[in-house]
Amino acid sequence: MSTLPPANPKASSSSSSPPATGADGARARRILSSKLYSDVPPSKVPLVYSPSYDIAFLGIEKLHPFDSSKWGRICQFLISEGALVKSRIVEPLEASKEDLLVVHSESYLNSLKSSARVAMIVEVPPVALLPNCLVDQKVLRPFRKQVGGTILAAKLAKERGWAINVGGGFHHCSADQGGGFCAYADISLCIHFAFARLNISRVMIIDLDAHQGNGHEIDFSHDRRVYILDMFNPQIYPFDYEARKYIDQKVEVMSGTSTTAYLKKLDEALEVAARAFDPELVVYNAGTDILEGDPLGRLKITPDGITSRDEKVFQFARERSIPIVMVTSGGYMKSSARVVADSIVNLSKKCLIDMETPSARA
Predict the structure, then answer these.
(1) Cα distance between residue 147 and residue 190, in whole Å
(2) Which of 57, 315, 335, 358 has its CA 20 to 30 A from that of 267?
(3) pLDDT in tens, 19-29
(4) CB–CB of 154/163 below 8 Å?
(5) Which residues have C-beta within 8 Å of that of residue 131, sequence separation ≥ 6?
(6) Is 239 helix (H, G, I), strand (E, B) or coil?
(7) Can you say where in the cell this protein is located (predicted)?
């Protein structure tokens, strides 16, 4: 990948935005009135998590291969390693309906009032049999809390240089369509909030989950302010060929790709991205479903390979003084939580993030 990728419907080097419309005005008003951009004291580190992220309900969550307690276990590992103090974790607010309407249509949000519809999105058929009030409380509310975390993480990244939402990364959800365990489009929401509240006009999405990020690709299909680098296995879900048209830099990694080959492709991809676009914010979708043995990702990346991958992306942002937001996205083995925690510890050791607060350093 020594040359720029072929032209696509977006002129990726441009920072122009879509023309203002009545819908844009309503979006701006919702963002400006939102409470999700709360002030975070300096005593906190820009790592965002809430116990409300974790999904547990009568064991039904075990019917999906995703580890729905992964987020809490990541934090437990970080705390046990001495890398993080529990009291310094940032807890976000839950995204409200008005917040979600910044991207989502009213009709889509109304569709989530059907337990059968939610069951299809989260790929757990028995959810269809539950009262929707329980589905909303036990499944959708944790997702909304994570959406609040991704949105807040952008503000923290602008203020501190980096932020990690221990959850989020629901990259299969677009404004009007959920799927693949993704009910809300947190990445799209995060970016629109950043445009309106952070004086940011150019954002790069680096999506390194094993699956194609078709949700944000559809949402920003004709938005020149957003550049998308998506490195994914084209032989697995979601097979969204329409959304692939809107990827600025498409890097395909076939089933069975090794760590060495993967990291080489990533190095080349980041070089191309650096020449193609000058972002003011990087949103990094850091799925761990590329791990060897993951039943859905089908790649063969070692835990150390994931540590190296994350280090390369954070180094990319640090060298260019670009604020970076990381979300954890997919990962379908119990070992994923440990791998994510180890990678965060490595980022701290390499001084790519600073897990100490000003008061702790004094």
Answers:
(1) 8
(2) 335
(3) 456 778 899 99
(4) yes
(5) 115
(6) coil
(7) Nucleus
Amino acid at 98: E
Residue found by looking up tokens 């441009």 in the block? 14
Given the residues 172, 192, 211, 216, the one annotated as active site: 172
- How many angstroms separate the CA atoms of 187 and 194, rounded? 11
DSSP 62: G
At residue 356, the pLDDT reads 81
Instruction: For residue 282, list its beta bridge partners.
Output: 204, 324
Q: What is the mean pLDDT of the chain?
A: 92
Model pLDDT, residue 221: 97
Q: Which two tokens stand for residue 313?
A: 């992306």
What is the Cα–Cα distance from 359 to 347, expressed in whole angstroms?
21
Are 196 and 32 in contact by the 8 Å Cβ rule? The answer is yes
Alpha helices, H only, the chain: 22-33, 70-80, 97-100, 106-111, 115-122, 132-135, 141-160, 186-197, 214-219, 241-244, 259-276, 303-319, 336-349, 358-361
Cα 172 to Cα 59, 151, 169, distances in angstroms: 24, 17, 9
Are the C-beta atoms of residues 147 and 338 closer than 8 Å to each other? no
The parts of the chain modelled with pLDDT lower than 70 are 1-21, 57-66, 357-362
What's at 37, amino acid-wise?
A: Y
Cβ count near 234 (within 10 Å): 14
* Cα–Cα–Cα angle for 67, 71, 76, rounded to 5 degrees: 115
Rounded to 5 degrees, φ, ψ at 327 are -125, 155
Domains and CATH numbers, the chain: 44-350 (3.40.800.20)
User: What are the phi and psi torsion angles at 275 (to 5°)?
Assistant: -80, -25
171 is an active site residue: no
pTM for the structure as a whole: 0.93
Neighbour order of strands in the sheet with 324-327: 47-48, 162-165, 324-327, 281-285, 203-207, 226-232, 249-252
Q: Which long-range contacts (CB under 8 A, 24 or more apart) does 267-275 make?
A: 267/312, 268/1, 268/2, 269/1, 269/229, 269/231, 270/229, 270/312, 270/313, 270/316, 271/1, 272/1, 272/3, 272/4, 272/5, 273/204, 273/206, 273/227, 273/229, 273/249, 273/316, 274/316, 274/320, 275/4
359 close to 316: Cβ distance less than 8 angstroms: no
